[in-house]
Structures are given as C-alpha cells and as structure tokens.
Amino acid sequence: MNFLVFLGTERASTPPRPQRLGERVAAACRRRLDANGATHSLIDPLEIDLPRPFKPHFSFARGKAPAQLEQLEAKIASADGYVMVSPEYNHSMSPTLAHLLNHFGSSLFSYKPSAIVTYSAGQWGGARAAVNMRTFLSELGCLPVSAMVHVPRAQDVYDDNGICLEGIDQESWDSYLDRTVKQLFWWAEAASRQRHSGETHAPDAFRTAPSQRNAPK
User: Fold this and answer.
1) Whole-angstrom Cα distance, residue 18 to residue 120?
2) For residue 183, what is the enclosing H or E element?
3) Domain 2-213 falls in which CATH fold?
C-alpha cells in the first residue's frame, strides 16, 4: 500500500514553539505506516508553489498546469489512500490544507480511503476540526475511516521525529495510532482490489467542473 500524508500547516514563524507542531504529528503517523509495512510520502504545502490567484488543476488545458501541480496530481492518482493531518482553526480544518486539496478534482481521490489526524497545543486535540473534515473529505471522494486520531498538547507528546517524549507511554500512543492506520489499510486494500478487478468500473466524479454533479434541469 502506498499512502500520502498531507501536512496541514505552513506556519514557519514563532510563536508558537515548536513552529510547526504538525510536523511532529505527521512524523508519528509516518512511523506507524512504516511499522505496518506501507510506503508513504509527505506532502508539505511549504514545498508547493500554488497558482495565485486560485486556479484549480482541472481548469488548465491538459499539459498546461504548473509543473508542481502536475507532479502532485500524479502522486494523488497513484496513491492507495491518504492521511490528512490538520490543526484546528475556528472549529474547522486548516485553511492551508483545504486550499491545497481544492486544487484537484474528486476523481483523483475517489474510491480511496482517508484517515483524519488532528492535533492542538491545547486540550481538545483539534477534535472539532475533525467534524468539518469528515464532510470535506467525503465530498472529495476519499471517505474517511471511522477511527480518528486526536493529539492534545502535541508538543508534550512527540519530539521532532514523532517519537514520544520522556515520560509518555510510547506503546499506548502507537496502539492508538495503529487503530486508525489498520482501518485505513483494510479499506485501502479492499478498494484497490475492486479498482483492479476488471469486473466493475467506478463512475467518474467531476473532472472538468463541479456542475457535473448537478441534478438535471
């Protein structure tokens, strides 16, 4: 199985410290993907120069989109599933993550599962953002698995490598993340078999415009 881990923060200033708390949480997720035998790549919004003003990938003429969008499109299309790592902003998911994902049509993500991972520097672990993310990811087509990960006070749980800090129970946190990772694996394997069975063909989500989903007039 091949997964993409989307990092939902581009903050590179202080406060807070550490500057990008999500990097620690994403590293912990990648450790558990490794432990369960997956391949994976980190998608970091700081490394992607998105078009300004906003122009989604599917609105460009074929072959005319910026190179970084073309490369990310290929990664999204080839992945078996996705891990979405997000902080919480105003009870919602990261605007950085939403902005990045909004550049791509749902056909790239459809019929593949996703996992929701949220975090915070405070006590709630971004749980309220996860409610918003369920709706967003379902519309995108990569249905989220039921188990979610919430990491409150993440700066006190993980170091820069996604390893638990001294005094934190590594085994318990690994088991907690594995519950979500193993659900993601189960659904990703089932979806992959179906996509490659040759017996059925999944209908397309929209490819050129969201209006393709509209009811007839």
Assistant:
1) 12
2) helix 170-195
3) Rossmann fold (3.40.50)
